[in-house]
Write a structure and sequence with these properties.
Helix content of chain A: over 70%
Strand content of chain B: under 5%
Order of helices and strands of chain B: HHEEHHHHHHHHHHHHHHHHHH
Number of strands of chain B: 2
Helix content of chain B: over 70%
Structural class of chain A: mainly alpha
Strand content of chain A: under 5%
Number of domains of chain B: 1
Distance between the termini of chain A: 57 Å
Number of strands of chain A: 0
Oligomer: heterodimer
Number of helices of chain A: 5
Distance between the termini of chain B: 27 Å
Number of helices of chain B: 20
Order of helices and strands of chain A: HHHHH
Strand order of the largest sheet of chain B: 1-2
Radius of gyration of chain B: 22 Å
Shape of chain B: globular
């Protein structure tokens, strides 16, 4: 059992990050922490791709290095996905600034109460 | 000539950057640039559609790569239809947005970015490329929702962003599973490779589940629709019309692509849970979407929940997976875009003229704004599925397909969906035509100012462009129904190719 898990440790960690991210996303009442949770969730997926590309004992995919190589394609894909993630975070933080200006709080429940009062 | 495909993405992208840069020097240049771009886009889409319907699908691989390695652009009848729809709606909503606003150049730059993302999604033949366009679409849509005034729009946009990102991330994870199983990202190549791996493989099945659930979020299938009503209600009228007409539609198109072009019908017939997932999503969406639509106070939220239920119908057609139902799904996608976009624009017009925003405000609307009431009623009847409108033809094909497939539960729910649509639209029509308005209500004015999201009542604010756009939408919703059966014939070869 332990050996089975140890061989898949990296996969385990990446899926653990998915869980942690989802929990923060849903559980935290703080809007900024929600966005951080979203980032953790995405990072879990990024790591999943990178782990999948890894080959035991392989070198970086350079012509000067010895074969076998690790697969370069998932790295390229994830580079794109990271850029997307950064843009999303920027937009989300921009919106949060606007919400904070309006309500003076980042707590979701307090905002709900303020809205209900209107 | 298939290099033309690239321009479907490049033209709006170029227009977007131009609008943004021009805004630095001259304000108020956004609208002319956006309109010029949309007209060009419509021209390109029309030429591409003309070619795609004539013979085999158009294919192009940019950058001099070869097919399974480079990013392939593929346009068949289905893609061409959606690309053309995107171009038409983009131009139509611009006609409305000129007077209705928002007016800044940044708005038009984002608007064109959204057009680029939607066109890209509809023509790509590469699954990771589809994810990138999905995120571009998402980002632009979040920003557009946030152009509404007040903090309500910002909260709606943030909610949309978080839920939408989770959906897109699940889609990405699904791509990862498919890539680990097969080592390819090209859709046509994936179809053969996935079959070689075997449909029983947990990797393949998990990939299907993740891709479909990710797209369910974007389509707004119940219970992952939560972003949609707040986003539509919080956005300005032109934006909610544009987003409701296109964003979910193109996501539903992506669902059809993933299910039929990547996983194929064989996967669907051999894997019981795959079909169940789609059927459950469809049934729950249709029933609960309609039920929530009936209980809403605000018109825009009623319309939003109506979309949840209509897209349930389309997911149901995908689950049926035969030629008739699929033709119906495509026709209903186009029809829903025209009708729902038109309804949102009409409700915006009504708000501008009379200040009516809630279901109660619609009492006796016909006395205050006859033309708007008639337009709203015609579009609502088309959505219910009264012949000869487009809404009837789409539902007819879908139900016929379900009968052919002998999926009786689905037939019952689909027929019930028409009654349920009647439940919320007939109520509005009755209020508009057969009730007297309440006392010249101060509550309306109060509701508006307290809410802060609605524009001030001012009949002069209704421009010719706004009226013409609504009239075009109403006319199209009826006229398209007449031509829809012929279009179904035209789509035949495409649907057959999807189902093999």
């Amino acid at each position: 059992m332990i050996e089975f898990l140890a061989a898949r440790l990296y996969y385990l960690v990446s899926f653990l990050l998915l869980g942690v991210g989802t929990y923060m996303l849903i559980g935290s009442p703080n809007l900024v922490k929600k966005v951080i949770g979203m980032n953790v969730f995405q990072t879990g997926i990024f790591l999943f791709f990178i782990v999948a590309a890894f080959v035991d004992g392989a070198s970086a995919p350079l012509l000067t290095a010895e074969p076998p190589y690790v697969s370069p394609l998932p790295h390229v894909l994830i580079l794109t996905a990271i850029v997307v993630g950064v843009s999303l975070t920027a937009v989300a933080l921009g919106l949060i600034v606007r919400i904070y200006d309006e309500y003076g709080t980042l707590n979701e429940q307090s905002i709900q109460e303020l809205v209900a009062d209107e | 000539m298939s290099e033309l495909l690239v321009f479907l993405v490049v033209v709006p992208l170029f227009g977007s950057v131009t609008a943004l840069l021009a805004g630095l020097a001259w304000s108020r240049t956004g609208w002319p640039i956006a309109t010029l771009t949309a007209v060009t886009q419509l021209g390109v889409a029309a030429v591409v559609a003309g070619r795609a319907f004539r013979g085999t699908p158009l294919q192009y691989v940019p950058g001099g790569f070869t097919a399974p390695f480079g990013i392939q652009l593929v346009v068949d009848g289905l893609s061409a239809t959606i690309a053309l729809l995107v171009a038409v709606v983009a131009l139509g909503v611009l006609g409305y947005a000129r007077a209705a606003g928002p007016r800044s150049n940044a708005f038009y730059a984002t608007y064109l970015l959204l057009v680029a993302g939607l066109s890209g999604m509809s023509i790509t033949g590469d699954i990771f490329n589809m994810y990138v366009f999905l995120e571009i679409t998402g980002l632009a849509a979040y920003a557009l929702v946030a152009t509404g005034t007040g903090a309500r729009a910002a909260r709606a946009a943030l909610n949309y962003l978080i839920v939408g990102t989770v959906g897109a991330s699940l889609f990405l994870l699904g791509i990862g599973f498919a890539y680990v199983a097969t080592g390819t990202l090209n859709m046509a190549d994936l179809a053969t490779q996935l079959a070689a791996v075997g449909y029983g493989s947990p990797l393949v099945q998990a990939s299907f589940a993740l891709l479909v659930v990710g797209l369910f979020v974007k389509v707004a299938v119940f219970p992952v629709h939560t972003w949609q009503p707040t986003a539509y209600a919080g956005a300005p009228d032109s934006v909610s019309a544009f987003i409701s007409a296109l964003v979910s539609t193109v996501a539903a198109y992506a669902l059809i692509r993933i299910v039929f072009s990547v996983f194929t019908v064989e996967f669907l017939t051999t894997t019981a849970f795959a079909r169940q997932l789609l059927i459950v999503g469809a049934v729950v969406s249709i029933v609960l979407g309609s039920a929530f639509a009936v209980t809403q106070r605000e018109i825009k939220r009623t319309l939003a929940y109506s979309s949840v239920s209509q897209f349930g119908l389309i997911v149901g057609a995908v689950a049926v997976a035969n030629g008739t139902a699929l033709t119906g799904a495509v026709i209903h996608l186009v029809g829903h875009a025209v009708m729902k976009g038109g309804l949102f624009l009409t409700s915006g017009l009504v708000t501008n003229v009379t200040g009516a925003e809630t279901v109660d405000d619609y009492d006796g609307l016909v006395d205050r704004f006859p033309a708007g009431s008639v337009a709203f009623a015609v579009l609502a009847l088309a959505m219910i599925g009264v012949p000869p409108a487009i809404g009837f033809v789409g539902k007819w094909y879908v139900v016929l397909g379900a009968v052919e497939a002998e999926a009786w539960t689905l037939v019952v729910v689909l027929l019930a969906s028409t009654l349920l649509t009647l439940a919320y639209f007939a109520r509005l029509i009755e209020r508009m035509f057969f009730r007297d308005a309440a006392e010249p209500s101060p509550t309306t004015a109060d509701g508006l100012s307290a809410d802060g999201s609605g524009p001030a009542t001012d009949p002069t604010a209704v421009s010719l462009g706004m009226q013409v756009t609504v009239i075009v939408a109403v006319t199209l919703s009826v006229l398209l129904g007449v031509g829809a059966f012929e279009y179904g014939q035209l789509l035949q070869p495409t649907v057959e190719r999807l189902l093999t």
